[in-house]
Design a protein that fits this description.
The complex is a heterodimer of chains A (82) and B (151). With 82 residues, chain A is of the alpha+beta class. Chain A has one domain: Beta-grasp domain (Ubiquitin-like (UB roll), Roll), CATH 3.10.20. Helices cover 18% and strands 28% of the residues of chain A. In chain A, strands 2-1-4-3 form a four-stranded mixed sheet, with helices on one face. Chain B has a single domain, classed as Aldehyde Oxidoreductase, domain 3 (Alpha-Beta Complex), CATH 3.90.1170. The longest helix of chain B has 19 residues. The chains are: A alpha+beta (82), B alpha+beta (151). At the A-B interface, loops of A face strand 4, helix 2, helix 3, strand 8 and helix 4 of B.
Chain lengths: 82, 151
Amino acid sequence: MEIEITVHVFAVLKEYFQEKFEMKIPTETSCTSLLELLGKQQPRAKGLLGKCRIASEEAILDDGATFSQNDTIYIIPPSSGG
Amino acid sequence: MITPHKIPVEELMASLQNDQAGASVLFAGIVRNQNKGKQVSWLEYEAFKPLAEKMIHHIEEEAKSTFDLIAAICVHRVGKLSIGDTAVVVITLAMHRREAYEANQFIIDKVKHEVPIWKKEYWIDGTYAWGHNCNCQLPHKDLQEFLLHHQ
């Protein structure tokens, strides 16, 4: 069984993915496994994705967190502010 | 706070004025004209604003309690910045200078390493690169630990 989520990416990830896209994923997909799925879609980004976190608008999600139908999530690459 | 506008440094300083403060430290991160031997033309900063502002607020509050500050504020600019523009400002007020200095460095280090803000450097030769804080980046596990404790 699958669910559909909306994914936003930032910064250097936009070199590899559209800024916003829909994605169908198996239910019970965790944050870690979602990053692995994205790495399979874009093997050149695999190393970078290994350093990314997944967030909602409110918080960084735990690596083992799973998603619900129609969730909107944000892929957070390593920071480089300042 | 995240802003696309020029940071009003003097107004921020004035707004924090407090008669109990014996020390005020201002850090301003400025766009310089070179990095790693390459000439920089301009920078562009991007942020995930909802989460970045929340995390900056947590860092300010953590600094206030850890260093017994009277006030702390951090403002980071986003959008296109030119050489000489101020990209980030941290102001800390304390009774004594030691706490104000230490807290200021604590805040800017955490903001640089942990808050979802990203820098894109445009070089004078027409190429560009996404910024990395690789000279001082915290190990990923430290980042995870920080984030887990600040949700």
